[in-house]
């Protein structure tokens, strides 16, 4: 797990883990349990997602025109900003298609690493990789990306290929 995962409060990790019991990870339910609703929206061209203050909390908006796998990573990325950088959200953070925002590159990398931990937990990933090998799956990365509902690029990074 990433250093960002280890920085989370154990209670928050327990909430996240309670939604990592099936594949793909139950992301919308997880976000609601953490108090952050998700809204599919039409966002400006080139914007994949955002997190903004909403009422007493925050709301994540994801570009409804993006592919579903990208939307899932965007939601996890914005949720990571909420968990790691809540004090820096200010009036909101918009992330473009390369997950760049007004925050530093370091903060964006932190959000990406935590998003990967949220969507592709190590225990489930190891079990799925083992099952793929036992089944003789040819393209393991494609198989895993479909299973976890993430892009092939995200899965390649996670498995180190």
Automatic annotation (TrEMBL):
Q: Where is the IrrE N-terminal-like domain?
A: 58-156
**A Pfam family assignment:** Peptidase_M78
**InterPro entries attached here?**
IrrE_HExxH, Rad_response_metalloprotease
Protein name, per record? ImmA/IrrE family metallo-endopeptidase
């Amino acid at each position: 797990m990433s250093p960002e995962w280890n920085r989370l409060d154990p209670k928050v990790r327990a909430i996240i883990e309670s939604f990592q019991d099936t594949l793909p990870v139950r992301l919308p339910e997880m976000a609601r349990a953490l108090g952050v609703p998700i809204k599919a929206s039409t966002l400006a061209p080139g914007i994949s997602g955002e997190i903004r203050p909403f009422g007493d909390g925050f709301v994540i908006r994801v570009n409804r025109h993006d592919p579903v796998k990208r939307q899932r990573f965007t939601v996890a990325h914005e949720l990571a900003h909420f968990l790691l950088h809540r004090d820096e959200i200010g009036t909101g953070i918009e992330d473009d298609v390369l997950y760049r925002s007004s925050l530093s590159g370091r903060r964006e990398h932190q959000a990406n690493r935590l998003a990967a931990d949220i969507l592709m937990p190590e225990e489930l990933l190891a079990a799925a990789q083992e099952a793929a090998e036992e089944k003789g799956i040819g393209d393991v990365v494609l198989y895993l990306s479909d299973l976890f509902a993430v892009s092939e690029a995200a899965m390649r990074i996670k498995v180190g290929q």
